């Protein structure tokens, strides 16, 4: 075989490889007009090399952010350096639909890319080459893992029955709030809420009915909360609510509204209608509190007074005598 035949054969299989390789290959001139467009790009765009040749890239593909891509490419042209883009920074350069069955949850193809200069015989940069990699499988796996980790993190902070903060999560938040109000001399209020005669509900109707009661009251607690307030399930039938930047006078309105809502609540469990009430203790933050535990104790003692005085009522810790503490 002659040298000429060898060269033709080499060019043939190089062109064959160029067209069938499973990455996108795009060559642009310095005016961002398309010069080369391989089979991968044709397959995913639906446009043939003849249809795109000499067309301005940003006219054909308006989803490509021109300012962003030029910022990536200008150093390549000027300094002859390579540039890279990753899907975490920008999901894709070309908005191609994703057709892979394994990564079917992704609507579009996630892409990484490499951008490098092409020079002439004098070493002058005349063109840019973009290599487009389909990394949808990696991106989807990473995003699913992050989503799962986020869900697990949320579950670790959430009470399963009520979907409120669990005790640990709620108390950690209280610690941070306590430090904030001590530092900035703000005022917040803490409510401890207990379902009255809850043991009787469990004894008379069963624990499943008791769970229904707890769930329904938790819904009322959430319904009355502002976005900044934080509610948690403190114990079996006990809830804790932190009313941020709220003095006790305003906390009374929240507590009384909640108390009345529970008093009017009818919980249906099978053929049984269960009525119940709550007792509430309220404690406002103050300089005398040495730590968050002391704050909880004040609200808890006010709750105890509400229960001792007949239940279905609220008590302010500030109104209790030293003897009651």
Backbone shape: elongated
Radius of gyration: 33 Å
Low-confidence segments: 8-13
CATH topology label of the largest domain: Alpha-Beta Plaits
Largest sheet: 5 strands, antiparallel
Total number of distinct structural domains: 2
Spatial strand sequence of the major β-sheet: 2-1-5-4-3
Q: How much β-strand is present in the residues?
A: 15-25%
Q: Could you tell me the mean pLDDT?
A: 88
End-to-end Cα distance, whole Å, is 105 Å
What would you say the CATH architecture of the largest domain is? 2-Layer Sandwich
- Which superfamily, in CATH terms, is the homologous superfamily of the largest domain? Reverse transcriptase/Diguanylate cyclase domain
Overall SS class: alpha+beta
Q: What is the CATH C level class of the largest domain, in words?
A: Alpha Beta
* Series of secondary-structure elements, N-terminal to C-terminal: HEEHHHHEEEHHEHHEEHEEEHE
Total helical elements: 11
Question: In words, what does this structure look like?
Answer:
By secondary structure, the protein is an alpha+beta fold. It folds into 2 domains: 3-143, PAS domain (Beta-Lactamase, 2-Layer Sandwich), CATH 3.30.450.20; 158-319, Reverse transcriptase/Diguanylate cyclase domain (Alpha-Beta Plaits, 2-Layer Sandwich). The protein has helices at 3-20, 39-45, 49-52, 57-60, 66-79, 136-157, 167-184, 198-205, 207-224, 248-263, 292-308, and strands spanning 24-29, 34-37, 83-85, 111-119, 125-134, 189-195, 230-233, 238-243, 267-269, 272-274, 278-284, 314-316. Strands 2-1-5-4-3 form a 5-stranded antiparallel sheet. A 5-stranded mixed sheet has the order 7-8-6-11-12, sandwiched between helices. Strand 7 and strand 8 form a beta hairpin. Helix 8 packs across helix 9 (207-224) and helix 9 (207-224) crosses helix 10 (248-263). The N and C termini lie far apart (105 Å). Residues 8-13 have low confidence and may be disordered.
């Amino acid at each position: 075989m002659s040298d000429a035949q060898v060269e033709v054969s080499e060019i043939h299989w190089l062109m064959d490889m160029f067209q069938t390789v499973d990455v996108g290959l795009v060559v642009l001139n310095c005016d961002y007009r398309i010069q080369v467009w391989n089979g991968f790009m044709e397959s995913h765009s639906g446009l043939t090399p003849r249809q795109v040749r000499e067309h301005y890239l940003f006219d054909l593909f308006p989803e490509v952010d021109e300012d962003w891509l030029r910022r990536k490419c200008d150093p390549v042209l000027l300094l002859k350096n390579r540039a890279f883009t990753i899907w975490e920074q920008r999901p894709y350069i070309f908005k191609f639909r994703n057709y892979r069955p394994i990564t079917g949850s992704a609507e579009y193809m996630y892409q990484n890319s490499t951008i490098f200069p092409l020079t002439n015989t004098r070493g002058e940069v005349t063109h840019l080459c973009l290599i487009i990699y389909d990394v949808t499988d990696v991106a989807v796996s990473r995003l699913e893992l992050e989503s799962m980790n986020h869900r697990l993190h949320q579950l670790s902070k959430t009470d399963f029955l009520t979907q409120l903060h669990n005790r640990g999560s709620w108390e950690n938040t209280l610690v941070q709030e306590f430090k904030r109000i001590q530092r900035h001399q703000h005022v917040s209020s803490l409510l401890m809420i207990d379902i009255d005669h809850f043991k009787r509900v469990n004894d008379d109707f069963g624990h499943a009915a008791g769970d229904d009661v707890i769930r329904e009251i938790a819904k009322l607690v959430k319904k009355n909360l502002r976005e900044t307030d934080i509610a948690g399930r403190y114990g079996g039938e006990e809830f804790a609510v932190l009313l941020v930047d709220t003095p006790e006078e305003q906390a009374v309105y929240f507590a009384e509204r909640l108390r009345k809502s529970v008093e009017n609540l009818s919980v249906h469990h099978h053929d049984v209608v269960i009525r119940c009430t709550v007792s509430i203790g309220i404690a406002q933050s103050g300089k005398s509190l040495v730590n968050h535990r002391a704050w909880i104790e004040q609200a808890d003692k006010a709750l105890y007074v509400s229960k001792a005085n007949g239940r279905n009522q609220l008590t302010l810790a500030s109104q209790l005598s030293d003897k009651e503490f």
